[in-house]
Amino acid sequence: MLERDGYPAGVPCWVDTGQPDPEAAVRFYSGLFGWDFEDRMPANAPTRYFVARLRGRDVAAVASQSDQAPPTPVWKMYIWVDSAEEATVKAREAGGTVLAEPFDVGDAGRMAVLADPEGAVFCVWEAKRHRGAQLVNEHATWNFNELNTRDPGRAQTFYRAVFGWEATTMVTGDGGFTMWRRPGYGDFLAERDPGLRERLAADNAPDGFEDAVAWLVRMTPDRFRDDTPAHWSTTFAVDDADEIAERAARLGGTVLAPPFDAPWVRMTVIRDPQGATFTASKYVPG
What we know:
By secondary structure, the chain is of the alpha+beta class. It has helices spanning 22-33, 84-93, 152-163, 185-192, 196-202, 241-250, and strands at residues 12-19, 36-39, 49-54, 57-64, 75-80, 97-105, 109-115, 121-127, 141-149, 166-169, 177-181, 212-218, 231-237, 254-262, 265-271, 277-283. It has an eight-stranded mixed β-sheet, with helices on one face. The protein has an eight-stranded mixed β-sheet with strand order 10-11-12-9-13-16-15-14, covered by helices on one side.
């Protein structure tokens, strides 16, 4: 059980999706992952915010789609910060765009919606009562996020300036994978999980993997259409990628990429019935 109560600054901490019909999305994800949902909005509120729970712990959320959101739903990533205002200033100075200035979300926290210089959208989260995902990296929980970009160099400059991230290439060549690292994150994790580094070494994980906070993927013509914009995507951990793909199809989702093997994982790409795309990934050591 990989439990969390808060995150260091500069580390992704939460994911949610806004949907035109949030109740229908709740039914899909309940059937897919076995999530229970709790609506955190007042009964008379015009919008809904259903927090997904697994064994009583918050893992993700399904919300009503806002009027300002793109027509196709997406899974959004939130990055923990000490100050939403300071993160917003850094993003603007580094060439990013501020889509929503910092604002309070009740007593849960304070957030802003930002985009990097290539237009990939993400949120920053200054926590109050809501302290991010409480359960991660196990079946049916959020696993990690990846930035899909055509300009990795520019992205590396931006995210280093805003969050202090460092990029380490793991697979070279077009379409190669690069690991985003937040130096010191491994120390934070090891305090709560003393055997972490030993397990990673036994699994032949690359040096610095304990500091990994996300992935960077170069968008190439053989993998992405020319009109696909730069974007952040979300991956959930699963015990069986093949079974999840079959279940998603039965529930009305679309399997965009049937299960396939990649370094350290077996994965599948799924689009939910309203259009939000995500990856389901089974970790394969070594």
